[in-house]
């Protein structure tokens, strides 16, 4: 048994949902961990009295402890092309992504990048992520292997592409299906790893591959599906040409049995109300990727409409089109995207989206995203005085909401003092 003392913040519901009890905050709190799981979180004074005499107490007073961040969309194979300039989505994919992903046929390269990538997530306080590798089986093996070593919660699967991409990344629909099945058998459910059927997007799969992907999902209850949806206007027009029979881009996925609980779609910028209604009704989730949408000039995510439809929403960094691994920075950019759309994002809602909201969109809220008893003890120790400016600005804050807002606007990896996974230290700022 272990206990961490500090300021504690977590959510039990969506603070935008009107529940007064959604946010739990203890200025002097204690998080008690037993066998890697949360035993209890609450006020230090009351809980200290109940602790056995030999319990180890880590004193982090002055720091803010929140559940580990959940990144609902990121590409590990694009780590080395983050910050590559020029062009919107389709040009950017051809210019940077295809050559970068080609290198993941090499297991040594894949393993080296996977290790760096997982460490970078931890350095930024991210303990759970839904990740795109490449079409290569070895890229998935490398990622799952690196995550397993660090006991991180990772959802991933072999990228499926059988058209509209270079031949060095293309394989037949049948080979993609067979490769996916082998990986599911080997990795799904191992420690904290979960498989996601991963058709890259409808443009790079033939109807046959889309059909097989839907079948794979149907045959494996409990696995995820991840893809891209309605990110960029030229992309949407292209999908209309490729699938003239579909009502919309989303409808393509639905026709092939890919829409349902545990389906996560990145971007969701260019949707209509019917699409949002279908996503809500089927239990699918949107991954809002603000830095990517700004970087590629894709468009502005509409959180108000997603909320009105009742769709699950999480936050994605979408590295390498996204420009930061930091969920704090990504929340700051989410705020700015919504400002451009005439909407707002409270700091409480933002921290909810980065933790429990992400967990809910991945159907993992019974395991992570909050400090309710029994949840896996993944957490981040944040330093709200990490830089001279953060320290100065935070000192002037009167309320928790103000401090959280300052943290998401000015904070980044420097504000992450420690990251803990399953109740054990996984990273500590030097
Ligand atoms: N759509 C299809 N593939 C990709 C990708 O790798 N990045 C982004 N941002 N969008 C995509
Ligand atoms: Zn993406």
Briefly note the structural class of the backbone.
alpha/beta
CATH architecture descriptor of the largest domain: Alpha-Beta Barrel
Mean model confidence by pLDDT = 98
According to DSSP, the number of beta strands is 16
Bound molecule types: guanine, zinc ion
Tally the structural domains.
2
EC number: 3.5.4.3
Organism: Aromatoleum tolulyticum
Protein name: Guanine deaminase
Pathway: Purine metabolism; guanine degradation; xanthine from guanine: step 1/1
Structure characterization notes:
39% of the residues lie in helices and 24% in strands. The chain folds into two domains: 124 residues, Urease, subunit C, domain 1 (Roll), CATH 2.30.40; 277 residues, Metal-dependent hydrolases (TIM Barrel, Alpha-Beta Barrel), CATH 3.20.20. It has 430 residues and is an alpha/beta fold. Bound molecules: guanine and zinc ion. The site of guanine has 11 residues, from helix 2.
Give keywords:
single chain, 430 residues, alpha/beta, Urease, subunit C, domain 1, TIM Barrel, 2 domains, nine-stranded parallel β-sheet, seven-stranded mixed β-sheet, 15 helices, 24% strand, binds guanine, binds zinc ion
């Amino acid at each position: 048994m272990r206990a961490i003392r500090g300021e504690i913040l977590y959510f039990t519901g969506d603070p935008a949902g009107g529940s007064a009890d959604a946010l739990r905050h203890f200025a002097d709190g204690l998080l008690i961990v037993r066998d890697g799981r949360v035993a209890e979180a609450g006020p230090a004074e009351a809980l200290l009295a109940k602790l056995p005499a030999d319990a180890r107490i880590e004193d982090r007073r002055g720091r803010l402890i929140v559940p580990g961040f959940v990144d609902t969309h990121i590409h590990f194979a694009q780590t080395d092309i983050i910050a590559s300039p020029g062009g919107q989505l389709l040009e950017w994919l051809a210019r940077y992504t295809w050559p970068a992903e080609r290198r993941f046929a090499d297991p040594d390269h894949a393993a080296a990048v996977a290790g760096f990538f997982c460490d970078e997530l931890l350095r930024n306080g991210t303990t759970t992520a839904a990740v795109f590798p490449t079409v290569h089986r070895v890229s998935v093996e490398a990622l799952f292997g690196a995550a397993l070593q660090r006991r991180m919660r990772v959802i991933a699967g072999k990228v499926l592409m059988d058209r509209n991409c270079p031949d060095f990344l293309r394989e037949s629909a049948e080979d993609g299906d067979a490769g996916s099945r082998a990986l599911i058998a080997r990795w799904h459910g191992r420690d904290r790893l979960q498989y996601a059927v991963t058709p890259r997007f409808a443009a790079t799969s033939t109807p046959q591959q889309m059909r097989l992907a839907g079948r794979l999902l149907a045959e494996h209850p409990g696995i995820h599906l991840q893809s891209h949806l309605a990110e960029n206007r030229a992309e949407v027009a292209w999908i209309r040409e490729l699938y003239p029979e579909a009502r919309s881009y989303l409808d393509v996925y639905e026709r092939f049995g890919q829409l349902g609980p545990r389906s996560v779609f990145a971007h969701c910028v260019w949707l209509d109300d019917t699409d949002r209604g279908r996503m809500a009704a089927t239990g699918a989730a949107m991954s809002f990727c603000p830095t990517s949408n700004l970087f590629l000039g894709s468009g502005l995510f509409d959180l108000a409409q997603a909320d009105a439809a009742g769709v699950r929403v999480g936050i994605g960094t979408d590295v390498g089109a996204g420009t930061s691994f930091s969920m704090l920075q990504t929340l700051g950019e989410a705020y700015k995207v919504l400002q451009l759309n005439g909407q707002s994002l409270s700091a409480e809602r933002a921290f909810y989206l980065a933790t429990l909201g992400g967990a809910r969109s991945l159907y993992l809220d019974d395991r992570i995203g909050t400090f309710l008893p029994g949840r896996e003890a993944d957490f981040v120790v944040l330093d709200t005085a990490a830089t001279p400016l953060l320290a100065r600005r935070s000192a002037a804050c009167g309320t928790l909401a103000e401090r959280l807002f300052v943290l998401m606007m000015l904070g980044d990896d420097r504000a992450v003092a420690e990251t803990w996974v399953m109740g054990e230290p996984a990273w500590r700022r030097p």
